[in-house]
Amino acid sequence: MPRRNRHGLNTPRRTPSLRGRFVLGAALVLVALLICFGLQTFGNRVTAVEAAPPSNDAGSSRFPGKLPISQLTEDEAIVHALNRLGYGPQPGEVERIKQMGLETWIAQQLHPEKIDDSALAARLDNLPAPQMTAQALLTQYPQPDAAAKRLGITVAEYRKHIDDLAHPPQGTHPAPSALPQEVLNELAQSKLLRAIYSQRQLEQQLTDFWFNHFNVFAYKDLDLWLLAAYERDAIRPHALGKFRDLLESTAKSPAMLFYLDNYLSADPRAFAPKHAPPAKHAPPPKHSTPSHPLPPLGGKRGLNENYGRELMELHTLGVDGGYTQQDVIEVARCFTGWTITDPRVNPQFYFDERLHDPDPKRVLGKNFHAGGIKDGDQVLDLLSKNPRTAHHISLELAQHFVSDTPPEPLVARMAKAYQKSNGDLREVMRAMIYSPEFWSREAYRAKVKTPFELVVSSARALGADVDDAMPLVGWVGRIGEPLYQYLQPTGYSDKAGAWVNTGALLNRLNFAITLASNRVAGSGVQLPPLLGTESADDPYQALDRAVGVFLAGQVSDASRATLEKEAVNPQVLGTKLAAPIRQANLGVITGLVLGTPEFQHK
Asked: Three-state secondary structure along 4-16?
């Protein structure tokens, strides 16, 4: 990777050519400032450079079928769908969808199981960790202290041993890393490759959305080894299924049980010397016979309210969901005994009758007296059917897919679809997609891309061939969204305010130019096939082609004025002030276009 002036942006530095080195000078800082102001003020007003003006009868003349599109042109609608229901268009994808029909493409996305995604599998073959069980990961990537103890060496000696294996003498093939960090590295790479190359774009968007909704922090206890199974088995299969199933799969996941400490929650009386046996109405279910002996009860443990609170506040009802602190306590009592067996060998959900509070509970005015694991199951039933949950889930989906402040009538229709279908998430998404608000001019380019979305959409737009995704993962973190590493249970924000600041915007621009200039290790970019080989002879022609290819021909007057100025700036082009411009730097020009507010929005 070439050296960069990361801190002294205002320090002048001579560079012979941007083909050899990448420098952020005063010209690029000006562009960054443009983006900074643009992201705060740029709305849906763009000047169409090559696209046709919107037609009021677009829905009837351009879109046979039921999609209520009347304010967007055909190309705008396809780009909008690709940006919102996926991660942006790849080269030639707009034309491909135009030929098959936008409604046909949407129907396919709503049923990802019917889409052939075998080409993606080949790219994931070199990343085995995301497909392994937690038991296998704990064995292959052991905790350093445990591994060192087995080998009779110190942790420092073990780490040096692993590092030596990964960096052997020249001519010797390095051994794969066995450090736990490799699990997270491979999981993050897999997530990024799926978003770039999967044909099941909506499924990838929803998997990311639901992971944030049911967020788990990678570095909490054993969650580093549990995240792969959590996303693969608890979230992705239910992304377009029944919300009740998704809620239960996350509640029983060892990753969530560790993250919110519910595996420790117990009836305090369980540890009293003369604890009474469970009531007769609650016979021990099959879950009470562990496949492996549990450690004896010991040590003072009690009720933990973390999961009960987040279950209602974040996962279902919402902050203003009408529950009280007493409801939180009662829900926590219902989930006592939901724990993990063999946590450091083969972590599995396990219900321990000994730790469960057998007494009656009362949640949201409803009495619970089923006993055992059924107490928690009935809470999940109650919350998943609550109208406040229908509204909360619909609001968050609309915020993610439509706008930071979605119209209330849209949210209401989505909530109605939720209730009518008994929480069928596919029907909720269908209600959103078939609403005019989704296709409105106000919704067009109304959302700011998250760092993950920006990196993925840039790679897709450029048709990048990614052999090693780890450098791209690093850029996602550098821009502000390290994957699987958000500490709080809220997950990463969907709103622009979380991502719009000068430092992040400079990093966004750095990334765009670095990737477009073919300087991200492991990612190959070829611009001449996209922009035409002749465009390199004229920076203005190159700029026009880049705007047409990457912005669908639409750019604001302010953005175009700045782009035209910077496209021929000698510092940007790497020429001397007195020298005639002989060749346009396609990488820098393309990077500047990807740094505009128009591309930073979706």
From this structure: CCCCCCCCCCCCC
How sure is the predictor about 170, in pLDDT bands with cuts at 50, 70 and 90? Answer: confident
Q: In the 3-class helix/strand/coil scheme, how is 31-64 assigned residue by residue?
A: HHHHHHHHHHHCCCCCEECCCCCCCCCHHHHCCC
* Cβ-based neighbour number of residue 449 at 10 Å: 23
Kindly give the residue spans of alpha helices, DSSP state H, lying in 320-450.
325-334, 374-385, 387-401, 408-420, 425-433
CA distance 253 to 255: 5
pLDDT of 467 reads: 96
pLDDT at 413 over 70: yes
φ, ψ of residue 356 to 5 degrees: the values are: -85, 140
Tokens of 223: 């969650």
- What are 449's two structure tokens? 């891309």
Please work out, in degrees rounded to the nearest 5, the angle formed at the alpha carbon of residue 533 by the alpha carbons of 531 and 535. 60
Half-sphere exposure of 339 toward its Cβ, with a 13 Å CA cutoff?
Answer: 24
Band the pLDDT of 295: cuts 50, 70, 90: low
Cα distances from 566 to residues 8, 531, 539, 588, in angstroms, run 21, 18, 10, 10
Checking if the pLDDT of 523 tops 80, the result is yes
Nearest CA to 191 out of 272, 89, 123, 96 is that of 123
Q: Give the global pTM.
A: 0.87
Cα 263 to Cα 469: distance, rounded to the nearest angstrom: 35
Cα separation, 548 vs 528, in Å, equals 14
Q: With CA atoms as reference, report the closest residue to 348 among 362, 338, 336, 360.
A: 338
The secondary structure of residue 586, as a DSSP letter, is H
- Is 211's pLDDT higher than 80? yes
DSSP state letter for 366: E
CA distance 142 to 182: 11
Place of tokens 């609650």: 282
Mention every residue, 6+ apart, whose C-beta is less than 8 A from residue 293.
Answer: none
Supply the pLDDT for residue 64: 65
Terminal alpha carbon distance of the chain: 30
Q: For helices 451-461 and 181-197, what crossing angle results, to 10°?
A: 50
102 close to 94: Cβ distance less than 8 angstroms: no
d(CA 573, CA 563): 13
How far apart CA 263 and CA 247 sit, in angstroms, is: 17
Cα separation of 527 and 591, whole Å? 11
Would you place residue 147 in the very low, low, confident or very high pLDDT band (cuts 50, 70, 90)? Answer: confident
Whole-angstrom distance, CA of residue 478 vs CA of residue 455: 11
Identity of the amino acid at 437: E
Element (H, E) at 465: strand 465-466
CA distance 584 to 592: 13
Helix axes 74-85, 93-100, angle to 10 degrees: 110
| Helix, coil or strand: residue 298 | coil
Map residue 234 onto helix, strand or coil.
helix
C-alpha Rg value of the chain to the nearest Å: 27
**pLDDT tens for each residue of 29-73:** 445 445 444 544 444 444 433 334 444 444 444 566 899 999 999
